[in-house]
Design a protein that fits this description.
Elements: E1 9-14, H1 25-34, E2 38-44, H2 52-62, E3 68-72, H3 81-92, E4 96-101, H4 107-117, E5 121-128, E6 132-137
Parallel strand pairs: 1-2, 1-5, 2-4, 3-4
Antiparallel strand pairs: 5-6
Length: 151
Amino acid sequence: MAATDDVATTVVAVNASHLPEATHAIPTALVDIAKRHELVIVCGRATDSFGSQQLIQAIRALLPRWRVTAALVDPPPLLTDTDVELVDALLNEGALAMAVTSAADPGPTAEALAIRLRADHALRLVYHPVEGAQLHDLAQPPTPLATSGAS
């Protein structure tokens, strides 16, 4: 599988609904991870104008010499061995892989991929207009971020 002794593999779930308001913060955070780890981004399909294709374009603009490739994958329990093998092959070829799923919450798909790829880290990237992009452990349930005016 993708995990090796010298490079950590990280799977990051990105909620497509956060993309329109974080067109710079989310790609920048993902690029920072990609520079240190093999990276699989799991993104739900967006219904707005800024979705997975625009996220790929933003990452490619930040990493112009990198191969960034997307594959459509089914969410669990429909995630197939073929889906996992395709993502694994992309990683082994040195690509930054994006798995696009039809699920509203990409977390379960990211978790399933992380387990089956034997990833070192499984994270959720969330965005808040005040606090910016933040990484959370995918094993923890998503929690709403506090607002700056909350007491």
